[in-house]
Amino acid sequence: MPFKVRRITTMKKFLLALAVIGAMHVSAHANAADIANGKLLVERNNCAACHGLNMNQPITPEYPKLAGQYADYSYFAMRAYQVANNNPLFGRTNPIMNAQMQSLSQRDLRDIAAYLQSLPGDLVLKK
């Protein structure tokens, strides 16, 4: 009898793990970023005015090259500009970027970040 109980418990654990993996898979697709929308948002917000052609030729060295940047990094950087005034521990301050980010949703930020990552760039990731 103990073997049967142990087998049922193992089966329950397996099914629970399978359900969790399935939920993560569905969640990942539900939260997938929209690169086309990211491109539209970048164009609509005139990001090229500072970050340059294809987000890879900033108008001055003070502005970063964004093409090819990891989406996670770009998202969190934009989010930090968005919350700068409300959270000084997390926020970044730059008057232009703070203003640019205010009208965007977190979904928009993810879309922009995915678009930026999709662009070919010449970022130096390792030296």
TrEMBL record:
> What's the superkingdom here?
Bacteria
Alphabetically list the UniProt keywords. Electron transport, Heme, Iron, Metal-binding, Transport
Task: Output one GO MF annotation.
Answer: metal ion binding
| Family annotation (SUPFAM superfamilies) | Cytochrome c
One Pfam family this sequence matches: Cytochrom_C
Q: Which PANTHER family match?
A: CBB3-TYPE CYTOCHROME C OXIDASE SUBUNIT FIXP, CYTOCHROME C4
Name of the protein? Cytochrome C-554(548)
